[in-house]
Amino acid sequence: MTDRIADFLRTRRPEGPCLVVDLDVVRDNFLAFRRAMPDTRVFYAVKANPAPEVLKALAELGSCFDCASVQEIEMALEAGATPDRISFGNTIKKERDVARAFALGINMFSVDCEAEVEKIARAAPGTRVFCRILCDGAGAEWPLSRKFGCEPEMAVDVLEHAHRVGLDAYGVSFHVGSQQGNTGAWDGALASAAKLFRELAERGVTLRMVNLGGGFPAKYLKDVPGVPSYGRAILDSVHRHFGNRLPETIIEPGRGMVGSAGVIKAEVVLISRKQAGDDVRWVYLDIGKFGGLAETMDEAIRYPIRTLRGDDETAPCIIAGPTCDSADVLYEKTPYALPLSLEIGDEVLIEGTGAYTTTYSAVAFNGFPPLKAYVI
């Protein structure tokens, strides 16, 4: 919670649940990445928070953009990015979307199989491609599935095929898992990338770029290392595995760029117990999984939740959302401690919610409107 957000909520008093994002925090986070990794280009992951104000602020600072769709590409262009600062980073693309991106000037695409290579060769001939490889997500709060990427051994054939059909086999990418708390998590993936560079060189294909992906954490309930710690660990690994022949490198922070910049203001709708004498109260908020807090699924992301009741005595609570769906329970396995004095109508502040909240609240489920957002 920044002073600017606190002042906005105090003076504007917006009705209903809402997200407030402080652009000063976004700018500070971008500059922290640039200082920590000065020779690495920053490609902000637009999906984390595509608010036009966020994209414009980052474009003005010189950020590049990782886009998952043609719509996100158009948003980045509208914000002031030039096509050479945009990557079409989704490995699953319709061929007509590849063609549209190519028509917009996009020259960098991700792949993870030969079928995707064939699409790009037809729809965006001569462009650069990088192949995403699978890697261990140990240490991440939200390890990623096998939906994206291929085994490194297969990536050799994918990139050689790209070269043979006239594309520019540009490099390799990976993702070490969302909310990665281990600064050394990139080391194994970089070892695999360096091996790929050597094997492709033996086949006459010269790779030049390593996309280090995202995974940089936002601070929730637990402390996490700072950006400088990640920068030092990653650059040490790059030097260890590539020696003096350093590749170009890019990163794709999303959560780490905007997560800490946002606070959701919500309201207590109901406080109840399931039977007389229950020690644990149920606290229902006017926002839940379907209103923007989808990342509470399996309690993977545990947001800091504050009330205006200061140091009042607390007791454990189960926290749930307002919709008529039994899945709309935020925290039950590990209840939260909230003030015993908490009452219906009280305001609660959910911190660290600048990423992956408005984007998960796009449909008015049960008629509850999508999450309002204010960027200040």
Summarize, please.
The chain is an alpha/beta fold and 376 residues long.
Helix and strand topology:
Layout (H helix, E strand, L loop, with lengths): L2 H10 L5 E4 L1 H14 L3 E6 L6 H10 L2 E4 L2 H9 L7 E3 L6 H9 L4 E4 L2 H10 L4 E5 L7 E3 L9 H13 L3 E6 L4 E3 L5 H17 L6 E3 L15 H16 L5 E4 L3 H4 L3 E11 L8 E5 L19 E3 L6 E7 L8 E11 L7 E5 L20 E4 L1
Parallel strand pairs: 1-18, 2-3, 2-11, 3-4, 5-6, 6-8, 8-10, 10-11, 13-15
Antiparallel strand pairs: 1-12, 7-9, 12-13, 12-17, 14-17, 15-16
Helix pairs in contact: 2-3, 2-9, 5-6, 6-7, 7-8, 8-9
Distance, first to last CA: 13 Å
Number of strands: 18
SSE class: alpha/beta
| Name of the level-1 CATH class of the largest domain | Alpha Beta
Question: How would you characterize the largest beta sheet?
Answer: 8 strands, mixed
Strand content: 15-25%
Query: What's the architecture of the largest domain, going by CATH?
Result: Alpha-Beta Barrel
Low-confidence stretches: none
Report the CATH superfamily of the largest domain.
Alanine racemase
Helix content: 25-40%
Mean pLDDT: 95
Tally of individual domains: 2
Secondary-structure element series: HEHEHEHEHEHEEHEEHEHEHEEEEEEE
Identify the overall geometry.
Answer: elongated
Organism: Segnochrobactrum spirostomi
Keywords: Lyase, Pyridoxal phosphate
GO molecular function: ornithine decarboxylase activity
Protein name: ornithine decarboxylase
